[in-house]
């Protein structure tokens, strides 16, 4: 029953059904406090009970404060037999920290002074020590956060419950064992504790500028396997609703995606998003419809729209009286508040979405397992969505709204910034969430408004509304802003704000404010941006702000002041190194905090030294610095990729193979990584492994990368995989034909394919032909003739295949084209080699006339391929002789022509 109670707490669901089956009323009350957004009451009870119990011995430092808290937990919180109560306290501490720093309004209580019982100066020092304890690999946590004690205590308690090694006292050179969760042997309550610890670690990671350290690895390992949920479900009492279990699985997959986004492994998101979509039976598709966007628009124009419908979990979360954030109106004399869509079936959807662009694959249909399933035609829209009213779609469940938001973040992280088409897709996603009727969850709605505002601030017509909306959302979090521009009138429901905070990517309140500052800076409003950064105490961001506008001297002054105040800020040293291009500053950053970006900067510096450094590239030093960086943060795809490229450049193939193997494990769909991995295997003599890698590369997003296809073809040739050689040849011609013409044809490979084809048995019955015969014939006889312009050699290959197909008339036509291709060469009368080649081609054509002319023709019995073949032979020779007379009539080739004419 304890597992069920904690599972309901995890999902933020009412616990009425548990009351009749549980004798532990105290735990039920704690669960209700947490679910109702009143975690701070449990925290206050804890502070009242243990006030003044923690004593720091010696100097106040991060290590001494952590040691004091660990001693306090060991004495006051025996875990064995009390896991249930201790876990509730850890959850309450975490939720209160999140309320104070992420969702607002802050729950006012004097946590540090209540627990440590020191005077004012000591309390301030302890608070700073707690902030320093949350630094990760030289990156300091945000210094002005509220009550860091709550998060530190929560993490320590969760480490104690799960029996995992503490990440507070681990040295930089140690290895941290990753949690192992078994579906069969891990108790459900322990699995839930691991789950909450992963949530706390993601909270911790959101406090630093860039994800790194063991926290990312431990969180990823926890969410790595579905066994986490299996372990919980197996311990739920019988009779638990199947829908409840499905919600646990859906929540797990949503948080799995959130974790991938948080640690920069967004390439892994699609699989989990696909699974949660199936669990919730969520139906949605992106398609096109004509829409009017302005008040005076007479003709509707094409636009993107998301059609979506929820089928489960509409009322899964505990209902709360939540007032959504205010949506600012455009107040535009021109623009409509939202697009008005016409009927989707008014015209072909391919024209609605893409205009009249050529080469659109209209037969691709509906592909479900994509970030944005796309329906190009009316008939491709899922039947359940086909009758949807684009201007009045039904409300979605919170689970499905979150899926759309997570897909939005995945698209943002995997596509170029400020791409107009991508912004249209993101706007369509956000519109589906924002313009639906029905009750709205504050966190989901506020996040959607925030993302819409970021897009709107890039457009002149919506800039004002976007900035106002961002300012409003920032102020609604109850920030310590002296003068608020927009008064808060909405009632605040803390439970609603906290209900889905662990499924949405974390954005701390100061990060929202910093993003607003970035927008001001991008608009040239430097003073307002700097004011926000200074109010937030973000010295590094202030320096970057000045550096971005070219004031590097001012940036250095800000960083020097920051280093003077905190000489352990490794990030400040590293940014100073980036501005000054000074390796000693990066070395200092690494020395004091093992800041991985410092090592990455050193690697780039030695790989491509600036001209003023007057040093030569040093690949050995580059590899050393990248190795140091990866030892501290092995989840960085970009660093592994750079490491592998340097390995290839300095011929360290084993190293390159390892690096690119790590790349493809982090992003299984990165075609260039697969291709580079194959290059390393080729150099190591592992052709089969290279071939497998290239198959993965061409199966990934590499349809336009001709180099990958060429490598694939060459390796397939060496392994005699002729079906794949043919596929690669066809793809190479399709990719390069527009730019390279017949240069896209690899003649030696084509000759080998033709040899294989014509030495096989031909059948006049198409169904008896093999796939290779059909495909190769279609390629040689249909595709190549569209590309060939001057290559007689190519035409002869086509002629061989036509003759094999028992089409001598087509073969003779190819021989004629081969001759004409070279006969019209402008160098015929000046270059003897061209003259000799033309005579050779003429002899070939004459021989073709002789051998093919009297065969049965195209129209069956009684017809000939070329009835007047002798006349054509004489005409061909005569035309060539007249062109060469006076210039080549004393050459050996001329004599050959004379002899050929005499033999006809």
TrEMBL record:
| Ribosomal protein found in the keyword field | no
Write down the Gene3D superfamilies for this protein, in alphabetical order: Tetratricopeptide repeat domain (1.25.40.10)
Name under which the protein is recorded: YNL313C
Q: Which domain of life is it from?
A: Eukaryota
What are the start and end residues of each TPR repeat? 637-670, 671-704
Q: Report the transmembrane regions from the record.
A: none
Keyword terms: Repeat, TPR repeat
Q: Which SUPFAM superfamilies match?
A: TPR-like
Matches recorded under InterPro entries: TPR-like_helical_dom_sf, TPR_rpt, TTC27/Emw1
- PROSITE patterns under this entry? TPR (PS50005)
Q: Is this entry keyworded Amino-acid biosynthesis?
A: no
């Amino acid at each position: 029953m304890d597992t069920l109670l904690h599972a309901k707490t995890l999902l933020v669901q009412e616990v009425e059904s548990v009351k009749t089956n549980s004798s532990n009323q105290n735990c039920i009350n704690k669960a209700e406090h947490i679910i109702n957004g009143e975690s701070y009451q449990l925290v206050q009870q804890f502070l009242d009970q243990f006030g003044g119990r923690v004593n720091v011995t010696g100097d106040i430092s991060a290590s001494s404060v952590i040691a004091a808290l660990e001693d306090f937990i060991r004495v006051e919180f025996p875990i064995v037999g009390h896991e249930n109560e201790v876990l509730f306290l850890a959850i309450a501490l975490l939720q209160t920290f999140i309320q104070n720093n992420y969702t607002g309004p802050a729950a006012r209580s004097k946590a540090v002074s209540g627990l440590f019982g020191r005077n004012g100066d000591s309390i301030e020092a302890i608070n700073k020590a707690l902030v320093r304890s949350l630094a990760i690999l030289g990156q300091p946590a945000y210094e002005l956060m509220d009550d860091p004690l709550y998060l530190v205590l929560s993490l320590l308690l969760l480490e104690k419950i799960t029996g995992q090694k503490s990440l507070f006292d681990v040295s930089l050179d140690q290895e941290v064992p990753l949690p192992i969760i078994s579906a069969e042997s891990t108790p459900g309550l322990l699995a839930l504790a691991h789950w909450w610890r992963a949530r706390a670690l993601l909270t911790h990671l959101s406090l630093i500028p860039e994800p790194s350290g063991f926290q990312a690895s431990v969180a990823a390992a926890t969410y790595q396997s579905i066994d986490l949920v299996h372990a919980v479900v197996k311990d739920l009492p019988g009779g638990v609703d199947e829908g409840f279990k499905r919600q646990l699985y859906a929540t797990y997959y949503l948080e799995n995606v959130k974790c991938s986004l948080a640690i920069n492994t967004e390439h892994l998101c699609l699989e989990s998003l696909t699974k949660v979509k199936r669990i919730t039976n969520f139906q949605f598709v992106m398609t096109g419809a004509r829409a009017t966007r302005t008040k005076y628009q007479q003709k509707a124009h094409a636009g993107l729209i998301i059609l979506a419908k929820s089928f489960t979990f509409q009322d899964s979360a505990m209902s709360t009286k939540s007032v959504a954030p205010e949506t600012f109106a455009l107040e535009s004399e021109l623009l409509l508040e939202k697009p008005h869509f016409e009927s989707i079936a008014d015209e072909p959807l391919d024209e609605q979405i893409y205009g009249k662009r050529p080469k659109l694959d209209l037969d691709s249909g509906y592909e479900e397992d994509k970030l944005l399933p796309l329906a190009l035609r009316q008939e491709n829209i899922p039947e359940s969505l086909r009758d949807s009213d684009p201007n009045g779609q039904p409300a979605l469940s919170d689970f499905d709204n979150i899926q759309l938001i997570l897909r939005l973040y995945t698209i943002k992280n995997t596509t170029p910034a400020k791409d107009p088409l991508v912004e249209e897709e993101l706007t369509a996603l956000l519109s589906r969430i924002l313009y639906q009727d029905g009750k709205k969850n504050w966190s989901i709605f506020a996040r959607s408004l925030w993302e819409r505002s970021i897009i709107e601030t890039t457009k002149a017509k919506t800039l004002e509304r976007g900035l106002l909306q961002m300012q409003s959302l920032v102020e609604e979090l109850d920030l310590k802003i002296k003068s608020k521009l927009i008064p808060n009138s909405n009632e605040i429901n803390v439970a609603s704000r906290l209900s889905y905070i662990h499924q949405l990517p974390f954005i701390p309140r100061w990060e929202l404010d910093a993003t607003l500052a970035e927008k001001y800076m991008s608009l040239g409003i430097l003073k307002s941006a700097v004011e926000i950064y200074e109010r937030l105490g973000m010295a590094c961001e202030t320096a970057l702000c000045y550096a971005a506008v070219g004031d590097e001297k001012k940036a250095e002054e800000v960083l020097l002041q920051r280093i003077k105040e905190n000489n352990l800020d490794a990030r400040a040293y590293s940014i100073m190194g980036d501005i000054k291009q000074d390796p000693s500053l990066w070395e200092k950053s690494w020395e004091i905090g093992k800041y991985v970006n410092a090592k990455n900067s050193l690697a780039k510096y030695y790989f491509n030294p600036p001209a003023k450094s007057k040093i030569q590239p040093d690949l050995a030093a580059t590899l050393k610095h990248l190795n140091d960086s990866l030892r501290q943060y092995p989840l960085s795809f970009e660093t592994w990729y750079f490491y592998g490229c340097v390995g290839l450049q300095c011929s360290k193939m084993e190293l390159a193979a390892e690096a690119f193997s790590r790349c493809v494990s982090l992003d299984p769909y990165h075609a260039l990584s697969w291709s580079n991995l194959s290059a390393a295997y080729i150099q190591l003599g592992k052709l089969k492994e290279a071939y497998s890698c290239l198959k993965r590369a061409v199966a990934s997003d590499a349809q336009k990368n001709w180099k990958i296809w060429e490598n694939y073809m060459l390796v397939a040739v060496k392994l005699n995989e002729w079906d794949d050689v043919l596929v690669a040849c066809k793809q190479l011609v399709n990719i390069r034909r527009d730019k390279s013409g017949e240069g896209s044809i690899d003649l030696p490979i084509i000759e080998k394919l033709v040899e294989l084809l014509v030495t096989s048995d031909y059948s006049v019955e198409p169904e008896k032909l093999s796939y290779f015969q059909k495909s190769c014939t279609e390629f040689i006889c249909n595709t190549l003739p569209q590309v060939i312009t001057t290559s007689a050699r190519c035409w002869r290959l086509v002629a061989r295949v036509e003759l094999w197909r028992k089409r001598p008339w087509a073969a003779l036509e190819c021989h004629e084209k081969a001759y004409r291709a070279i006969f019209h060469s402008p160098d015929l009368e000046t270059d003897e080699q061209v003259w000799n080649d033309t005579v050779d081609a003429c002899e070939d054509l004459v021989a073709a006339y002789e051998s093919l002319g009297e065969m049965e023709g195209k129209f069956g019995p009684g017809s000939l391929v070329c009835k007047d073949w002798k006349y054509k032979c004489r005409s061909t020779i005569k035309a060539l002789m007249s062109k060469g007379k006076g210039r080549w009539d004393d050459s050996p080739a001329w004599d050959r022509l004379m002899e050929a004419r005499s033999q006809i």
